[in-house]
Design brief:
By secondary structure, this protein is an alpha+beta fold. The protein has two helices and two strands, in the order αββα. It has helices at 2-7, 34-47, and strands at residues 13-17, 20-24.
């Protein structure tokens, strides 16, 4: 999460779900495009080393 935020691609928040660290993202804004979602997913995968 921090790597994606530091890279400037997207902002997201951290949380805990069922006792495990998780990332909260929102894609429900009217201005969010499919391209935005794809870019953010790519940034998350890259940050995870995949």
């Amino acid at each position: 999460m921090t790597r994606v935020q530091d890279g400037g691609e997207a902002w997201m928040g951290g949380t805990t779900w069922q006792g495990q660290a998780a990332i909260r993202i929102s894609v429900s804004n009217w201005s969010t495009t499919e391209t935005d979602i794809d870019r953010t997913a790519d940034a998350l995968l890259q940050a995870a080393g995949r």
